[in-house]
């Protein structure tokens, strides 16, 4: 059957194989965490803080306890010391933040869980939760965010760096740009809510929870509950979208585990969409100051990028992607700095392209401002400053196809002949503009293990505690094993997302395929060696398997990723396999790169903004499955449209609460906002990054789109917008 | 537990209504989001099974749309071109699931300033029929809506039908809505226009603007200015200052008053230009 989307695909890896679990997903038989049916399940409902900062004075639980069906109510007064204080991931632990669940009377942020009701039904738990009367004391006005001043920011010195002499170069330059940019708080809002089910059987705990890192949940929970980790199993067979929000252990899991132990029954918690805004991390608001200087011919002579990010009082979290924006272009004089501004908010976390999205918006918009001042084509400006060596440490890129991406996307877009002057293209009442920007994402990989079993009947079974987040992990891992063993993909089964399987890296940092595929390849190598078949060349293992007389060959392998410490493999077995690579290697830098091109239309009178076309070209090493990669890239680009025009978690400064904590008011693009979005995959071979040659495409698609849209809006209207999201009123 | 009843007839509904201060539940698309985190404080009368409230019929007094008719049913009905705006609005109230549940009567009784159903019904000179133990009464829609979330409906009344008089079923209409994204969005502004064109000249014009004042409004001055024009001339005849003066737009989270007035004028021009195209074609 010809594939309309990918007619030219060849090879086993590289085929647009249809999704491994497609039938289960479209028929509804795929059981997500909240779908798992456990006998005698009790239902939990969270009560969360309605104030932004202060202390709990007292609870009146009388009415809630009297409600029929209510079994138990957990508060900091009733829970005792069942949950231990354990460090966050930033302090060498497992937690997404350092607050102890129901740990004290202190209120650190709006939406903080203060009680959890357990009842026979969801409805009874919810009604009782609404009957819990919470009295607060010592309520003070919270610091809601960055505010208008960044003077209170605290510099994070280890994230700053400098080369050359920025001040002199900037002062003496021909052409300079000096501008400030902001991006808002955003929430991932995965379709699947933050569900958790816990069941105890004979002192063993099983957790069903959508997770990007099941072993983080397992080992973190063991530390919180003082349990032997071998008594905990975490299962996450399918995840209905994560985008960073399901990366690390949150408060809720231990609460559900404790509740289930207290009542001797399984307990199920599905926090509401609104509660999800503070149950897990989010993208904090950022502010940027960028200064650029260049010669008349466009060569950068000085670059300065300083960022400010909101964090919680409890945790210092910063994405600090100046480490990337300062390394993209050749420039002899660079200064970079990162600051955090502590607010009375829940701890931010990782949201798809966590630092890359906001920092790219600032840098790639600033470059467009420079191109305009130089009266230079924005693509030509990138070409003049293209480099195969990053300018901070002088390290080589393992591969860099940035200009190939620009040229490919520009040709597909029809960029040639674009008038350089803004506000010159019209179509009736619509002002038309074209903009572009660089997309980048660091190439990561982490330690991972896999087990592969070959049976005499030709079946292959692959096991790894990697994660299917919707990105196509089952499908791609089946493709890898099929190619390595020379068997049809239909004979390969894959198990993922279970701590009973060989451990793997967190599914974050676009690292899953780049990390788990090499482990599967190594296990397949081991099988081939057992059969006396040379590795590294295509082969069908079945004749040798027949001849061997064996029933089954099973091999377990662990693979250490480049850039990880020699003893880090031990961490793999403690839930501490984190991605390495990107700009944190001693010998090289690794990036997937791309170019985003956008057409916008702005109505002359109403100033409505439409995005009729987005074309991106991406070079991300080997693409194992162009169908799933295409989904990742196009999905990312649509996120980019949302980040440019819609997404914004609006904060009520009185109690630092989210005003639009629902999918009606938290706007994301709907189909009618997304017209023509094309992702072109540029061929690139990189044998250095990892054995699979994979750079990862999970996040790069979102990077640069907001800048390209802002640049296109400038081209359409002559109005430069430096604050996201860009709204009608910015263009009045 | 909140008392809940689902009457099967209009008399039963009126009897239950007279018992207290119940909450009338039709499609539930406004009630549910407003109450999901709490419990209902009043007894609920679910009127979704009352047959007298359903159906679209053409009678001697015009087009009668049962108050319990869903947006999906309105969009799918065979209606004259004068109702195009109403049918277009029916496809922009929330998403398809909302349209399958939400009712025209609920939209009007909820009385949001941004109710998508109101401007198309204003250009149709719609009349509301209300039933109570005292009998039936009819009120013009323009009078029925008295303010944001305020109507003339008495506590013991239920809206039975929306009636479009025959005289208003002539010509063709068009609806345009503007929001922060292209669909599934609360309006910043929306307009409905209806023109009756005879011998190439506008004989009747009805213009209505929603979300730009406490209650959606007709624009009699602007309508007057269109009479006698060729359809192709109408868009240019919209005077932004006149439109602004006729409205009293609000500043809110979604837009400023100044912008709303400007946008309303532009939406009127677009709607008129679209109607003119139909005449040209």
From TrEMBL, chain B:
Specify the superkingdom: Bacteria
InterPro entries linked to this entry: CO_DH_flav_C, CO_DH_flav_C_dom_sf, Diverse_Substr_Oxidored, FAD-bd_PCMH, FAD-bd_PCMH-like_sf, FAD-bd_PCMH_sub2, Mopterin_DH_FAD-bd
UniProt domain FAD-binding PCMH-type: residue ranges: 1-169
Q: Transmembrane ranges?
A: none
Q: Name one GO molecular function term.
A: FAD binding
* Entry keyword set: FAD, Flavoprotein, Oxidoreductase
Q: What is this protein called?
A: FAD binding domain-containing protein
Source organism per UniProt: Fertoeibacter niger
Q: What is the lineage of its organism?
A: Bacteria, Pseudomonadati, Pseudomonadota, Alphaproteobacteria, Rhodobacterales
């Amino acid at each position: 059957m010809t594939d309309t989307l990918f007619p030219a695909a060849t090879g086993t890896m590289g085929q647009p194989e249809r999704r491994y679990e497609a039938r289960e997903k479209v028929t509804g038989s795929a059981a997500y965490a909240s779908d798992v049916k456990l006998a005698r399940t009790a239902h939990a409902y969270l009560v969360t803080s309605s104030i932004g900062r202060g202390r709990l004075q007292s609870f009146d639980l009388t009415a809630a306890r009297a409600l029929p069906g209510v079994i138990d109510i957990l508060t900091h007064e009733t829970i005792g010391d069942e949950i231990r204080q354990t460090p966050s991931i930033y302090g060498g632990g497992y937690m997404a933040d350092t607050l102890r669940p129901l740990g004290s009377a202190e209120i650190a942020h709006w939406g903080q869980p203060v009680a959890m009701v357990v009842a026979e039904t969801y409805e009874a738990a919810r009604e009782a939760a609404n009957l819990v009367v919470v009295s607060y004391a010592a309520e003070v006005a919270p610091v809601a965010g960055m505010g208008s001043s960044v003077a209170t920011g605290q510099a994070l010195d280890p994230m700053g760096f400098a080369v050359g002499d920025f001040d002199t170069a900037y002062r003496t330059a021909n052409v300079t740009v000096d501008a400030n940019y902001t991006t808002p708080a955003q929430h991932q809002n995965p379709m699947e809510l933050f569900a958790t089910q816990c069941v105890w059987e004979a002192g063993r705990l099983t957790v069903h929870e959508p997770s990007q890192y099941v072993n983080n949940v397992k080992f973190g929970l063991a530390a919180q509950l003082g349990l032997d980790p071998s008594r905990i199993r975490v299962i996450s067979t399918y995840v209905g979208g994560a985008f960073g929000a399901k990366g690390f252990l949150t408060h809720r899991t231990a609460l559900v585990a404790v509740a289930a132990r207290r009542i001797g029954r399984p307990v199920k918690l599905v926090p509401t969409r609104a509660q999800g805004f503070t149950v897990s991390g989010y993208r904090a608001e950022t502010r940027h100051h960028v200064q650029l200087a260049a010669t008349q011919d466009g060569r950068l002579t000085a670059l300065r990028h300083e960022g400010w990010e909101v964090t919680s009082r409890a945790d210092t979290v910063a994405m600090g992607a100046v480490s990337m924006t300062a390394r993209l272009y050749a420039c002899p004089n660079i200064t970079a700095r990162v600051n955090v501004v502590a607010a009375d908010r829940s701890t931010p976390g990782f949201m798809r392209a966590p630092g890359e999205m906001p920092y790219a918006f600032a840098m790639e918009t600033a470059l467009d401002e420079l191109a305009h001042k130089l009266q230079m084509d924005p693509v030509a400006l990138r070409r003049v400053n293209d480099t195969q060596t990053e300018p901070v440490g002088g390290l080589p890129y393992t591969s860099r196809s940035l200009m190939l991406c620009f040229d490919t996307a520009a040709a597909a877009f029809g960029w040639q002949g674009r008038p350089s002057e803004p506000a010159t293209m019209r179509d009736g009442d619509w002002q038309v503009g074209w903009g572009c920007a660089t997309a980048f994402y660091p190439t990561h990989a982490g330690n991972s293990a896999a087990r592969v079993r070959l049976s005499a009947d030709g079946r292959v079974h692959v096991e790894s505690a990697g994660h299917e987040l919707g990105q196509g992990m089952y499908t791609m891992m089946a493709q890898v094993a099929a190619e390595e063993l020379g068997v049809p993909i239909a004979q390969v089964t894959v198990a993922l997302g279970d701590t009973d399987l060989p451990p793997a890296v967190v599914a974050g940092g676009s690292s899953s395929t780049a990390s788990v595929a090499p482990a599967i390849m190594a296990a397949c190598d081991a099988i081939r060696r057992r059969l006396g078949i040379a590795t590294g060349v295509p082969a069908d293992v079945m004749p040798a398997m027949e001849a061997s007389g064996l029933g089954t060959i099973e091999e377990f392998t662990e693979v250490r990723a480049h850039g990880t410490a020699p003893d880090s493999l031990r961490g793999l077995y403690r839930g501490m396999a984190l991605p390495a690579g990107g700009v944190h290697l001693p010998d090289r830098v690794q990036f997937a790169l791309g170019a985003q091109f956008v057409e916008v239309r702005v109505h002359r009178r109403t100033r409505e903004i439409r995005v009729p076309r987005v074309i991106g070209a991406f070079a991300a090493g080997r693409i194992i499955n162009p169908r799933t990669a295409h989904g990742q890239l196009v999905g990312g680009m649509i996120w980019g449209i949302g980040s440019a025009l819609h997404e914004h978690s609006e904060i009520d400064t009185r109690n630092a609460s989210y005003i639009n904590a629902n999918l009606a008011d938290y706007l994301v693009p709907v189909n009618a906002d997304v017209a023509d979005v094309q992702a072109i995959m540029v061929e690139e071979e990189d044998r250095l990054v990892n054995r699979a040659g994979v750079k990862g495409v999970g996040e790069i698609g979102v990077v640069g789109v907001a800048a390209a849209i802002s640049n296109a809006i400038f081209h359409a209207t002559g109005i430069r917008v430096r604050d996201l999201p860009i709204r009608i009123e910015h263009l009045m | 537990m909140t008392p809940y009843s689902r009457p099967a007839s209009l008399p039963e509904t009126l009897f239950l209504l007279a018992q207290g201060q119940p909450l009338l539940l039709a499609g539930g698309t406004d009630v549910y989001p407003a109450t999901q985190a709490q419990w209902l404080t009043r007894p609920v009368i679910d009127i979704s099974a009352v047959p007298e409230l359903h159906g679209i019929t053409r009678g001697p007094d015009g087009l009668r749309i049962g108050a319990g008719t869903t947006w999906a049913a309105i969009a799918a009905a065979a209606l004259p071109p004068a109702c195009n705006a109403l049918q277009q609005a029916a496809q922009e109230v929330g998403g398809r699931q909302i349209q399958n549940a939400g009712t025209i009567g609920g939209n009007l009784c909820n009385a949001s300033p941004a109710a998508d159903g109101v401007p198309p019904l204003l250009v149709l000179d719609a009349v509301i029929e209300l039933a109570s133990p005292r009998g039936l009464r009819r009120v013009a829609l323009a009078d029925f809506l008295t303010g944001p979330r305020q109507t003339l409906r008495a506590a013991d009344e239920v809206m039975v039908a929306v009636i479009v008089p025959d005289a208003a079923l002539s010509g063709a209409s068009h609806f345009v809505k503007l929001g922060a994204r292209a669909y599934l969005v609360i309006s910043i502004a929306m307009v409905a226009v209806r023109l009756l064109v005879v011998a190439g000249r506008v004989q009747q014009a009805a213009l209505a603007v929603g979300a730009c004042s406490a209650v959606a409004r007709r624009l009699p001055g602007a309508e007057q200015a269109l009479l006698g024009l060729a359809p192709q001339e109408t868009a240019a005849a919209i005077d932004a200052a006149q439109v602004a003066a006729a409205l009293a737009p609000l500043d809110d989270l979604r837009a400023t008053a100044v912008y709303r007035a400007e946008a309303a004028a532009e939406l009127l021009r677009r709607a008129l230009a679209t109607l003119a195209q139909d005449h040209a074609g």
